[in-house]
From TrEMBL:
<dbReference type="GO" id="GO:0042357">
    <property type="term" value="P:thiamine diphosphate metabolic process"/>
</dbReference>
<keyword id="KW-0479">Metal-binding</keyword>
<dbReference type="InterPro" id="IPR039582">
    <property type="entry name" value="THTPA"/>
</dbReference>
<feature type="domain" description="CYTH">
    <location>
        <begin position="16"/>
        <end position="156"/>
    </location>
</feature>
<keyword id="KW-0378">Hydrolase</keyword>
<dbReference type="GO" id="GO:0050333">
    <property type="term" value="F:thiamine triphosphate phosphatase activity"/>
</dbReference>
<keyword id="KW-0007">Acetylation</keyword>
<keyword id="KW-0460">Magnesium</keyword>
<dbReference type="GO" id="GO:0000287">
    <property type="term" value="F:magnesium ion binding"/>
</dbReference>
<comment type="similarity">
    <text>Belongs to the ThTPase family.</text>
</comment>
<dbReference type="InterPro" id="IPR033469">
    <property type="entry name" value="CYTH-like_dom_sf"/>
</dbReference>
<comment type="function">
    <text>Hydrolase highly specific for thiamine triphosphate (ThTP).</text>
</comment>
<dbReference type="InterPro" id="IPR012177">
    <property type="entry name" value="ThTPase_euk"/>
</dbReference>
<dbReference type="GO" id="GO:0005737">
    <property type="term" value="C:cytoplasm"/>
</dbReference>
<dbReference type="InterPro" id="IPR023577">
    <property type="entry name" value="CYTH_domain"/>
</dbReference>
<dbReference type="GO" id="GO:0006772">
    <property type="term" value="P:thiamine metabolic process"/>
</dbReference>
<dbReference type="Pfam" id="PF01928">
    <property type="entry name" value="CYTH"/>
</dbReference>
Length: 212
């Protein structure tokens, strides 16, 4: 009998749109913790994440790209719009795609085996609390081991099969961002006002402050 081979999975990437907030505004985030209540709210198990971020002479960060190893798995995030509070990314998790990205942006020939020719620039652990609200919005609250806290509301869309043009990606992410804005406005009682600081920016601020 001829063997039946499983089909080769299609290469995929993830479009991710996120908006940061300073912290949760209520003592405990629950479905009926404010008005109006969430349509639904599911709490996910808390977990600890170990992140190491890599670059070479800040070439990638200057181009709006980040390469990190999260719990032993490589990821690259390419900024496609927004700013530090409102970010829009294409996320890659295939080592060949990450190597091609580093080669294109930094001119560095590297592989997963040599960390894509990059050097570590930040390493820290994060305790993450997370909830899924209204069946699709991911709310996360991250507490880093260097004493910083920041939250995000995220939407993701996995792309597979036929590639999407840059114009299509931007239009899709614009629509995703509009939905997050409406979500955070509707449930403003859940998110503390104030200017949020991203984890990497906070990390480097703490490192500079610790230098005598």
């Amino acid at each position: 009998m001829a063997s039946r081979l499983a089909p080769k999975p299609l290469a995929s990437c993830v479009l991710e749109v996120e908006r940061k907030f300073r912290t949760i505004a209520v003592r405990e985030l629950t479905q009926h913790g404010g008005t109006p209540p969430f349509r639904s709210l599911s709490r996910l198990p808390a977990k600890t994440i170990q992140d190491s971020y890599y670059d070479r002479s800040d070439v990638l960060s200057a181009a709006g790209a980040w390469v990190r190893n999260r719990d032993g798995k490589w990821q690259a995030k390419l900024r496609l719009g927004g700013d530090f509070k409102n970010s829009r990314f294409e996320e890659l998790d295939d080592a060949r795609d990450i190597a091609a990205c580093v080669r294109r942006l930094a001119g560095i020939q590297g592989t997963e085996a040599d960390c894509f020719g990059l050097l570590p620039m930040a390493t820290f652990s994060t305790r993450r609390e997370a909830w899924v609200a209204d069946s699709e919005f991911l709310i996360v609250l991250d507490s880093m081991d260097f004493g910083h806290e920041v939250g995000e509301v995220e939407l993701q869309q996995v792309l597979g099969g036929e590639p999407m043009s840059e114009v299509q990606k931007k239009a899709t992410m614009e629509e995703m961002d509009n939905r997050i804005v409406a979500f955070m406005k509707r449930y403003s009682w859940a998110f503390a006002p104030g200017h949020p600081t991203g984890k990497l920016m906070a990390y480097f601020e703490r490192m500079r402050a610790s230098v005598p």
